[in-house]
Structures are given as structure tokens and as C-alpha cells.
What we know:
The protein is built from 6 helices and 2 strands. It is mainly alpha-helical. It has a two-stranded parallel sheet with strand order 1-2. The protein is elongated.
Amino acid sequence: MTSSPNASVPSFTVPGLKQEDAAEVVRLLQDRLHALNDLALTLKHVHWNVVGPHFIAVHEMIDPQVEAVRAMVDATAERIATLGSSPQGTPGALVAARSWDDYSLGRAGTQEHLGALDVVYQGVVGDHRAAMRATEELDPVTQDMLIGQLRQLELFHWFVRAHLETSGGALSTAGQQGEQPAAQAAAGEASSHS
Length: 194
């Protein structure tokens, strides 16, 4: 039985990085790997289950996000391996380790899914930023990778929020903490403008 990369210090790592520091970076990256895998699956789920008048716009907006996030997953897993550990990419490992709930919407309207995705992206981007800050001193190479990923994740979040924003700059999901309340707020705002 192999141990989790979170449980031990790798027996080797990249030159110039202490093995204990590599273990901490791997711990941070494994959490990001789980979050990115979850995000890719969630985005694909939305792609399949979104309905309504703006279906095609949202359906087609999501697929490039899925592909980009899958590339982030691969880069993150390869960085874990480069640092001397074994990336954990199985569904069971993801479910056992995640600190967030499963995506809560099934078949739903575009605004509902976009409202829920606003909350999802807030969590992923916020946690990615925390990992980026934590790697600044530990491993600038990993931090650089995370910065590049953040650039794309924040852009995708903007794409989602652009559908939720009024011309006055207010978000229909402002102040909502969960996917369901955000979905309801977004759907309510959309119906008030129809």
C-alpha cells in the first residue's frame, strides 16, 4: 500500500528545495488538484444540464472552460510528481479529501446554473489565491504555475459574472453564500427583467 502524498515527506525532490518544503507544497497542490478535478466535472455537468433561452451561449461558453481546467489538472498533477510525490486523482480520494459539498443543481435554467457557478468559482479562486500566497517563499516555480491558473480561473469567473451583472454593476448573487441561494437570486433577478 502506498501512502498519501499528504502523509509523508518525499524521498527526493527537485534540486534546491528541501524535502520538507516539497511535502508542504505537495499538500497544497493535492488540495488544488482535487478542487480542479471537481471543477472540471462540475463544469461538464452544467454543460449537460443547462436549459433555457440562453442555453446555447452558456453551453458553448462552458466547454472551453472544461478543457482549460483539465489542462490545469494535468499541470498540477505533473508538478506533484516532479516534486517527488504521487498525485492522487481518483474519485474516492477527491471525495474523501474535499472540504466542500457536491454541486447541488441538476437540470436548471441558465441563470440558476450561472448563479451557482459564481459561488463555485468564488471558492476555487479564493483557495487558489491562498495556495499561491503560501508558495511564494516555499516554491516560486509552483507559485508561477498557480498564478497562471488563477489568471484563467478569474477570467472564467468574470465570464460567469457578466451574465449575473446589471448594467449598474450590481451582481444578482451578491451576498449569497451557497449554490442554491445564489441560483435562486440569479433566477429571481432574471425573471424581474423579463
